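Input structure tokens:
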């Protein structure tokens, strides 16, 4: 074909003139899915994980690929830009645009077919990589490329970015692992594409219609630019920048699917993908090598590559330091070898001996002076890999340091030139005043990740950022490298591609764009005819956020709510589907707005000065997004940058409802401490009324409580009443005094927990004290945003405990959420109170106290199997190491669940409208685990919410507090620790799980455990 038949480069970004209301109406009428043009949805999708922000026209969540195809047709008819989005974790700005965004992740996540014999499968774009690999694992197969975001990245997004990850060392990039793609052009051409034989290509180009035209133009592109492609495309493992025109070359089989991989939604819409699979690695060995500096580590890469490792990653000492400062991955950091930079080298084998043998060969070949360690067990390997995979989150928002940003974070050079690049880039950082940013990445492929402390909030800082990036690009190109080695070009690097490829190949990119998208409606302004790298910045010189006064101190964010709202870096870990706690509402809904990231985006939009969210604290969009936040605090620990959405929600609710009538649940459950004290005067009468169906329905309606819920019964005798009637404290007291804190839940609902704790503490030779006046941590007021009342409650509690606090007496919290308030929230609500600081420092859980102050005490031998649910606040704030150790010392064979939030989460699961989400959270992992547990196993949960959720869902299980299990195993436990027969409503017996019932359960569990041991 004569080159003159090639289409001219596409038109420059044409203006959008469509009526958004008419567009939204047409999409709703014709698309099987959800269509959202509201301000909240648009704000949530306004940015990705990059430095850029563009508010979309609207968002479509199709239920099937066919529905997505219909959405494309509607957009074509209305002539509006279009963008496909997967996990939304792109770092170069390719997932945000003033376009209609198709979010594939909520519904289109099916594994369509699997041919295990051929090792191929067909998937929809929204399937998450880890979810796919879980489904493939029973067949001994997996998808090879594995980015660090594997728990939440989608296959569609990986195709768009040509993703890689550490395993690309062996399996290559996504382009190397694609068999075929089903694609749709903006003007409606739908076809499967892949490698094309000469005969098939001849048939295609001889036909009529748009499909034939596309293939004829692609042939012409190949003929015109083949030699330039061979000359100017870097011959390196990680050339991700630019379009994959090399896939059209004869030596690559005229692979149209390969051409479209990495095109960042700028050419076509991918409807389905046929993936090439690889066998699951059976055995692995991980070697970590220590070097004096990162340049020396890079210089050692070629010698390590000679041993053909499965993966070869690098990290420097700055990344290690950042993780130590942020208290991340202590187990992995502890087992690193000596050195200031590290290479992580993984080998695989059919047997452990084979993998270990490869590791030994490398170690035997090492020069003297290279420190090393190596492990072939999954636990230690996982701990070490977390050090590497935490890179992005660990280097963002490091306390005491300037914020760091992407923008020059994934360049790649030939591996043999890696040391030169690292030394050159470090010199460049020093020249521009950026210090020595942390460095990590895929060193075996010469790909380096970093985050640099750019100043993106002043004109001078943005100008300096641009100058740095242009100089860094010249450094990489001079070494024969690629501007992007993994994250793609988008807006960050699109403008710089001419430096790497030259104007002739840029023209080829433009002509390719014109072949598939002549109207420039597919993700315009990215890769081709790009926006400038300093346009559309999420911050920028004009960024002047609202700085409202707050009740919480926000000490980690310089006291500024705007900084807290901007803390999220978009990595999307909150969108993972299993493991950890974060984010239960996303796992239940698969909604971006109900993820930690989505809520953070809305809060960020709320405080900025040009946003769809313009209501400030009164914003209904933000309120709606926060409504399904369980305030579990999982994000406080699981989020790589420690977003604390529970605190943000409490602050927002405080202002949102200030001076207004609040929701009914804020009164019925927010004021629970007062309600409980009133009910304590006549608990039998109150329980009788709330047990009567008609009265119960009325009470729930009046209190804004979910009609599906049972109302917990009040104890007939509070713990504090029992304590006063008990008389003088008992026990030797040789280990000193402890204050047992009588929280509302324990005192009024499950007093047997506190009585059991008294027995255990006295058996351990402590002298127990209980406050003589009413005390409260303020939790229920905090979670409902009634912060002035919460502070008043905390001041009162500190006053009551003042003498004990000044005497240094520890305070034992039995309810994890209340102890977590003392350890975290209280000092942020009252940062200038010395007594609150003392309370924070002296509060301990029962297990922490016993481990710290009675390490030689031998707990009673429970000798039983137990399923253990950690309370979310315990997981996020207090930690569970002490409980784990105490369980072991008590002979409890503990199956500690990694089941996430129970779903009840204090008041959340009781509130009207939350029941379905609450139960979906529980059904995700917790309740199935309880059902799978043998009937003679204990079910332990220290949190009142966790026990209530379990007992209301599984009536035949009796969840207990750890204190109750220990007390039940004490020799000849006094009758006072048991629930007096007949004094508790039958419907609450499972929640209490105390007294005779618990002792019987412990004895049965012991016998069962003994039988299993004999077996």
């Amino acid at each position: 074909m004569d080159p003159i038949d090639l289409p001219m480069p596409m038109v420059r970004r044409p203006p959008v003139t469509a009526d958004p209301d008419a567009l939204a109406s047409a999409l709703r009428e014709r698309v099987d899915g959800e269509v959202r043009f509201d301000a909240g949805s648009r704000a949530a999708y306004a940015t990705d994980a990059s430095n850029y922000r563009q508010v979309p026209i609207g968002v479509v969540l199709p239920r099937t690929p066919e529905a997505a195809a219909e959405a494309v047709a509607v957009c074509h008819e209305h002539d509006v830009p279009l963008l496909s989005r997967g996990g939304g974790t792109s770092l170069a700005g390719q997932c945000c645009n003033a376009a209609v965004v198709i979010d594939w992740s909520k519904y289109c996540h099916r594994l369509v077919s699997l041919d295990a014999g051929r090792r191929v499968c067909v998937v929809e774009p929204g399937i998450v990589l880890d979810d796919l690999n879980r489904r493939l694992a029973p067949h001994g197969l997996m998808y090879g490329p594995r980015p660090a975001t594997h728990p939440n990245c989608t296959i569609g997004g990986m195709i768009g970015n040509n993703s890689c990850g550490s395993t690309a060392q062996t399996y290559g990039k996504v382009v190397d692992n694609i068999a075929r793609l089903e694609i749709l052009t903006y003007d409606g051409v739908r076809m499967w594409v892949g490698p094309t034989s000469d005969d098939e290509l001849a048939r295609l180009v001889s036909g009529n219609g748009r499909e034939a035209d596309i293939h004829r133009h692609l042939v012409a592109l190949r003929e015109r630019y083949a030699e330039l492609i061979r000359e100017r495309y870097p011959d390196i493992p990680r050339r991700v920048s630019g379009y994959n025109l090399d896939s059209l070359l004869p030596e690559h089989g005229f692979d149209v699917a390969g051409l479209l991989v990495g095109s960042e939604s700028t050419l076509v819409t991918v409807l389905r993908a046929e993936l090439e699979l690889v066998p699951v690695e059976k055995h692995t060995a991980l070697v970590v090598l220590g070097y004096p500096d990162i340049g020396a580590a890079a210089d050692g890469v070629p010698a390590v590559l000679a041993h053909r490792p499965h993966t070869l990653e690098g990290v420097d000492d700055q990344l290690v330091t950042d993780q130590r400062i942020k208290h991340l991955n202590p187990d992995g950091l502890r087992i690193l070898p000596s050195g200031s930079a590290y290479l992580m080298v993984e080998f695989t084998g059919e047997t452990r001996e084979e993998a270990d043998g490869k590791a030994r060969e490398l170690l035997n070949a090492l020069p003297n002076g290279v420190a090393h360690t190596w492990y072939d067990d999954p636990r230690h390997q996982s701990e070490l890999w977390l050090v590497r995979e935490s890179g992005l989150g660990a280097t963002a928002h490091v306390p005491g340091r300037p914020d760091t940003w992407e923008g020059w974070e994934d360049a790649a050079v030939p591996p043999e030139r890696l040391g030169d690049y690292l030394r050159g880039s470090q010199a460049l950082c020093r020249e521009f005043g950026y210090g020595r940013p942390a460095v990590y990445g895929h060193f075996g492929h010469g790909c380096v990740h970093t985050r640099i402390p750019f100043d993106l909030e002043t004109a001078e800082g943005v100008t300096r950022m641009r100058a740095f990036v242009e100089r860094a690009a010249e450094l990489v190109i001079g070494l024969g490298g690629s501007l992007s080695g993994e994250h793609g070009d988008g807006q960050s690097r699109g403008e710089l591609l001419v430096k790497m490829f030259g104007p002739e190949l840029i023209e080829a990119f433009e002509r390719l764009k014109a072949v598939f998208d002549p109207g420039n409606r597919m993700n315009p302004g990215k890769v081709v005819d790009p926006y400038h790298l300093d346009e559309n910045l999420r911050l920028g010189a004009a960024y002047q956020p609202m700085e409202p006064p707050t009740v919480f101190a926000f000490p980690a964010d310089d006291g500024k709510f705007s900084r807290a709202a901007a803390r999220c870096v978009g990595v999307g870990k909150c969108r993972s589907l299993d493991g950890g706690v974060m984010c239960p509402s996303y796992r239940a809904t698969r909604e971006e707005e109900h993820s930690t990231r989505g809520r953070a985006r809305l809060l960020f939009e709320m405080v900025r000065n040009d946003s769809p969210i313009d209501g400030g604290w009164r914003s209904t969009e933000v309120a709606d997004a926060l409504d399904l936040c369980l305030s579990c605090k999982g994000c406080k620990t699981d989020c790589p940058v420690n977003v604390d959405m529970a605190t943000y929600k409490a602050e927002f609710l405080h202002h949102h409802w200030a001076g207004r009538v609040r929701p009914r649940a804020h009164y019925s459950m927010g004021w629970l401490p007062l309600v409980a004290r009133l009910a304590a005067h006549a608990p039998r009468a109150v329980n009788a009324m709330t047990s009567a169906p008609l009265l119960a329905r009325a009470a729930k309606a009046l209190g804004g409580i979910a009609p599906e819920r049972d109302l917990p019964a009040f104890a007939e005798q509070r713990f504090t009443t029992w304590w006063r009637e008990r008389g003088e404290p008992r026990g030797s007291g040789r280990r000193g005094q402890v204050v047992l804190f009588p929280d509302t839940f324990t005192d009024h609902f499950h007093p047997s927990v506190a009585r059991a704790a008294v027995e255990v503490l006295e058996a351990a030779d402590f002298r127990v004290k209980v406050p003589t006046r009413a005390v409260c941590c303020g939790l229920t007021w905090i979670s409902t945003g009634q912060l002035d009342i919460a502070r008043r409650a905390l001041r009162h509690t500190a006053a009551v405990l003042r003498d004990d606090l000044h005497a240094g007496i520890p305070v034992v919290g039995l309810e994890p959420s209340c102890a977590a308030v003392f350890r975290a929230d209280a000092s942020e609500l009252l940062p200038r109170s010395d007594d609150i600081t003392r309370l924070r420092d002296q509060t301990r859980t029962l297990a922490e106290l016993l481990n710290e102050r009675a390490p030689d005490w031998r707990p009673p031998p429970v000798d039983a199997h137990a399923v253990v649910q950690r309370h979310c606040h315990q997981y996020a704030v207090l930690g569970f190491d002490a409980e784990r150790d105490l369980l072991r010392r008590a002979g409890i064979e503990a199956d500690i669940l990694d089941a996430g939030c129970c779903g009840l989460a204090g008041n959340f699961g009781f509130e009207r409208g939350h029941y379905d989400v609450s139960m979906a959270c529980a059904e995700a992992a917790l309740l199935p685990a309880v059902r799978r547990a043998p009937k003679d196993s204990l079910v332990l949960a220290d949190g009142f919410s966790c026990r209530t959720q379990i007992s209301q869902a599984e009536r035949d299980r009796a969840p207990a507090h750890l204190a109750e299990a220990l007390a039940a195993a004490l020799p000849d436990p006094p009758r006072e620790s048991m629930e007096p027969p007949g004094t508790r409503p039958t419907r609450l017996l499972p929640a209490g799980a105390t007294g005779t019932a618990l002792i019987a359960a412990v004895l049965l569990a012991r016998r069962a455990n003994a039988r299993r041991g004999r077996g």
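The two ends are 78 Å apart (CA to CA). Residues 977-996 have pLDDT under 50 and may be disordered.
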